[in-house]
Amino acid sequence: EDLFKVPDGDAKALQAFMKKLASTPPEGETEEEQIEFSTKALNALVTAADRLLAAKPNETQTKQGHGYRIQALQALVVMGQEDAREKFDKAIQAARESKIEDVVGMGWQTYIGDLTGRWSELDPAMQQAFRDEILAMVKADGPNAMDVSIVQVVAMQLDGTDDEFAAKLLDEAIPLLAKSDDKEITDMLDEAN
User: Fold this and answer.
1) Which of 1, 115, 95 minimizes the C-alpha distance to 53?
2) What is the Cα–Cα distance from 80 to 84, expressed in whole angstroms?
3) How many whole angstroms separate alpha carbon 67 and alpha carbon 15?
4) pLDDT by residue, tens only, the chain of 193 residues
5) Who contacts 128 (Cβ-Cβ below 8 Å, separation ≥6)?
6) Rounded Cα gap, residues 95 and 100, in angstroms
7) 157 touches 170 (CB < 8 A)
8) Distance (Å, rounded) from C-alpha 17 to C-alpha 20?
9) Among the residues of the chain, which ranges form H helices?
10) How far apart are CA 84 and CA 106, in angstroms?
11) For residue 111, how many other CB atoms are within 10 A of its CB?
């Protein structure tokens, strides 16, 4: 039980706790015992990550906190924990709203993977909202390299799953991205075509 006790300490203590817990293999004789161990460990990781992110972490600790929280919640969603989906969605959103570009990228990567992975379960309104969100992001602050990557990854993930959606997204996003004066972006677009 002590292994799962999340410290009340500072960001450094929480970071050390998460690293140790994340590297601990599941214990237990039976599969049920191992699942119970894993569930406790994953929930402790989420609690520790929440505390770490609230404890004025440095940039590295912030990245790790978001990473551990997202991965632990993603595993809990797969394991069917009741409240994990809502927490997972909030964790992804928090990462996407971060001031740290790597964390934003992690949030978007997870968000895209999650939605495209369960694409057939999403109703058309949710699919449309996803497209609208991507296009709004491209328009909001002008095209940047992350926008190009997001559009490319979504189109590739849905290639063969929903070709019509992917084609429509590209048809709408490419003219917006092409307005950029940034050579990195125009090079990325040229390479994609």
Assistant:
1) 95
2) 8
3) 12
4) 588 999 988 999 999 999 999 999 999 999 999 999 999 999 999 999 999 999 989 999 999 999 999 999 999 999 999 999 999 999 999 999 999 999 999 999 999 999 999 999 999 999 999 999 999 998 987 788 899 899 999 999 999 999 999 999 999 998 888 887 778 887 777 776 6
5) none
6) 9
7) no
8) 5
9) 11-22, 31-54, 59-78, 84-96, 101-117, 124-140, 145-158, 163-178, 183-192
10) 18
11) 20
Q: Which two structure tokens, joined as six digits, stand for 95?
A: 């990462």
Looking up tokens 């990550």 gives: 49
Task: Please report where in the chains the tokens 């410290």 appear, as a residue.
Answer: 7
Task: Please return the burial class of 1, using the count of CB atoms within 10 Å of its CB with bins 0-12, 13-18 and 19+.
Answer: exposed
Tokens read off for 14: 């929480």
- What is the maximum span of the chain, computed from C-alpha positions, in angstroms? 60
Distance from CA of residue 26 to its chain's centroid? Answer: 24
CB 66 within 8 A of CB 91: yes
